[in-house]
Amino acid sequence: MAQKCAIGLISAVAASASLSKSNMASAAADGPLTFSGFSTSPPPQQQQGSGKESGEEESDAPRRIRNDNPRTGSDGFDPEALERGAKTVKGINNSAHAKKVFERIKTEEETRQAEFAAKAKEFKALQAQAEAERQRVVYEEQKKLSQHQAQTKAQMARYEDELARKRMQAENEAQRTRNQELVRMQEESEIRREGARRATEEEIQAQRRQTEREKAEIERETIRVKAMAEAEGRARESKLSEDVNRRMLVDRANAEREKWVSAINTTFDHIGGGLRMILTDQNKLIVAVGGITALAAGIYTTREGAKVIWSYVDRVLGQPSLIRESSRGKYPWSGSVSRALATLKGGGKESASTNGKGFGDVILHPSLQKRIEQLASATANTKSHQAPFRNMLFYGPPGTGKTMAARELARKSGLDYALMTGGDVAPLGAQAVTKIHQLFDWSKKSKRGLLLFIDEADAFLCERNKTYMSEAQRSALNALLFRTGDQSKDIVLALATNRPGDLDSAVADRVDETLEFPLPGEEERFKLLNLYLDKYITKTNLKKPGLLQSLFKKDQLKIEVKGITEDLLKEAAAKTKGFSGREIAKLMASVQAAVYGSAECLLDANLFREVIDYKVAEHQQRKKLAGTDTGNKK
Ligand SMILES: Nc1ncnc2c1ncn2[C@@H]1O[C@H](COP(=O)(O)OP(=O)(O)OP(=O)(O)O)[C@@H](O)[C@H]1O
């Protein structure tokens, strides 16, 4: 029995020990270790803080009795618990169901052990979970940290980039400012250099101009002196030859006079004898007086009758007085006579200017020339188709070839042409209207059709309400407007003016084609210079002297031409900018005069240049004067 009891006690102690062990394990997990079963002196705060645990233990373990006065030995061991255990064991031992109790206790103990194992497992799972959680948190923290670090790094990079950009901008700005400063300095130095260059150039040019002016002055003076000397020489020469001629003439006249005196004396001797015979015979006297009277009356009557008949013929068939020039000639037959003479002269061949090809001696801009040619062929076709003619207006500066072009147009179109000047109408006064009608009647008689060219048309056909226009002039204009009211199949009206704006609006309304004649361009000036060089210099050498010239005058001077090249003519064409065709023709006439004025009758490059320069200076001067004039008028 005692043995059993001991065993029970031992197992109780073991159970307590195992309980204490499991308690220790749980306490290790939960917090500070509690040893409620065999606690010697539990710390007061632990007892207070673990109230619930002690409560739980109260429900699970046998109830413990509070010992306020523990009997502890010198070594600190309190045997009371052991005693209590022994008592309990004794109680259990005394019980009839001790075995059952033990078994129950064992079962409970096993259950509790299992529970503890489950709890430990659960605890381990929780611990693993907590570990995983901790790891996740650590990972997240690390992730956040790395993100933060990456952000910081990116910010740092951005900031550095920003700084670098700003630094670069600042550097660029500084560089640009430096460059601008440099450019400004360069520009200033360039301007200074340019100013100095210009000043030098202007000085050189002024000097050159001064030299040229002096040279031109000297040249002009030389030409003047030369011309004067030449003129003086010629005058002296002609005076000498005049004296010789006069003497010869006097001798010849004396001889003639003597011849005539002797002839008259002989005649008078005969007449005196005859008269004496008549006067002595009365019958003969009567016959002689009657015969002489009848002869005088016959002569007078014939002369007066012829005058009357001629004036009638002239009025009916003759050319109106307003016409200055005409291809028809003064009388209807004179056109064909002159044409026949021309044919005979030319041996049946037509000259280059009248052969229908080319454009005669008129040099025009190619486009204008083409237009005139087209107009000529259109006019020719108009006539052949019996359609009405188209009137034309030529306008442009003076001396640009308007009249010449009108003549060529008429020639090419196969029409007759007649030329009148607007300025001739005003002096006719009250006669003007009759003359205009006469002119149109005469024009209508042309079988080939007639191109009536009115030069300086603005003098006659200007605006009708101008105050200075006379009544006669207004009537003449009205007469012309009346005659040109309808489109004509006989007359082409070609008007030429330098001031197209002055024409009466009714006149402008009658115009179908308007052609502008501008000043010749460089190419045209070159051609004009060539043409007039040919006309005034080269061809004069080929001209045969006339009969009178060969009888009475000494041999014509031959002009020698040296060094007048195409380049020289081109140079002259460039210099003569602003010259009209007429001015160029006159310029070449001046060249001819200068050649005749020279001792050797030689035209070389120097003389040619001299005259050109002189004429160009003259032209500039004239233009300047005209400018001042117009300025003053304004
Ligand atoms: N285009 C030209 N081609 C050849 N010679 C010309 C030309 N223009 C003018 N001339 C010369 O000038 C002279 C005058 O020409 P024209 O009478 O045709 O001029 P215009 O224009 O009718 O002048 P204006 O308006 O003064 O009457 C001609 O005789 C000729 O020597």
From TrEMBL:
Compositional bias ranges of the Basic and acidic residues kind: 60-69
SUPFAM superfamilies named in the record: P-loop containing nucleoside triphosphate hydrolases
MF terms in GO: ATP binding
InterPro entries named among the record's database cross-references: AAA+_ATPase (IPR003593), ATAD3_N (IPR021911), ATPase_AAA_core (IPR003959), P-loop_NTPase (IPR027417)
Residue ranges of the region described as Disordered: 20-95, 185-215
Classification via Pfam families: AAA (PF00004), ATAD3_N (PF12037)
Record domain AAA+ ATPase: where: 388-521
Composition skew (Low complexity), residue ranges: 32-51
Keywords: ATP-binding, Nucleotide-binding
Name listed for the protein in its UniProt record: AAA+ ATPase domain-containing protein
Organism: Eruca vesicaria subsp. sativa
